[in-house]
């Protein structure tokens, strides 16, 4: 870039240059430690895009056609059945598409799983009675979604129990979560960040839900396709990110998506943890739990065991392997869980390099490409059907102000938009 084109005294720095015969305005992020310009987002008459200024001053321009893709926000209210029906009607295309994707995945992976769609439905039906006994309200949400989307309840039950039904043969080392307490942020805010890594085909089905249940706290959360929402925060200042882990003690029981949906109804950290440890759970996630007070925990869960971890120096990071010594003894194939360890150590190092964090500094970590394509910003889209994954959405949460900043797809080439929970 020609520094003579800089518009002086504009923070952040604005640059103007010609691009495809149109005027291009560029907002540049400067690395304040080394003074180099590392990244820029831009807008011109044909849309938004992003410039990454590489180490050798090479410029890579990724242009998005038209306006930036914004995540769909679905507002629902009422009983659980009514909310589910509203989601189903509003997101019928996404829900039907996700069922088609799941059918295709099982067909493509039949040689590995020895499981077709009809067999998967039979297996999934074994889990639903446990969910209905403990959390009938969330099974009602699924019933409403099925009605609204004009799909079978069994199909949605399969989607929400899919990882359990396939016995975690979907061994995607997916998701990176971080949280920072107010002591380590500017303006005394509690901040959370999450990259959701999953099958590339499901990226088109991501959306946000702003819910006001009749009998539970309002919440703002992310989901995709026919899955119940579970990653987000509620009006009581409870936030949750979920990271898949791989225990050896999984069993038929309450699907972990149902359990994590219940956490969004919690009014206290203790109540949230009680849901995470629900009896007869089929397996478990790592639940990165944050509260507006600054309390932050990683609750590592399996079907029968759990551990609660505290942050180090006001910072918590978790990916897709167990950290607790005891939980490691029940981890399946730990030698295969390599990229999750790299992402974990990389995120810890980047968080430690800065004393005070902001939304922008967390988003910079979410865009990191060390160990590409199996990086924090995940691009591992080539390979076996059971192994392909990418970051399909990235969320950065200001829990103190009840704000979610979210982008569609890889954060390195997407625009974050802000969503507010007013409740």
From TrEMBL:
Entry-linked InterPro entries: C45_proenzyme-like, Peptidase_C45, Peptidase_C45_hydrolase
Origin organism lineage: Bacteria, Bacillati, Chloroflexota, Anaerolineae, Anaerolineales
Pfam families: AAT
NCBIfam families in alphabetical order: C45_proenzyme
Superkingdom per UniProt: Bacteria
Gene3D superfamilies: 1.10.10.2120, Penicillin V Acylase, Chain A
UniProt-recorded name of the protein: Peptidase C45 hydrolase domain-containing protein
Organism per entry: Bellilinea caldifistulae
Residues annotated as domain Peptidase C45 hydrolase: 186-411
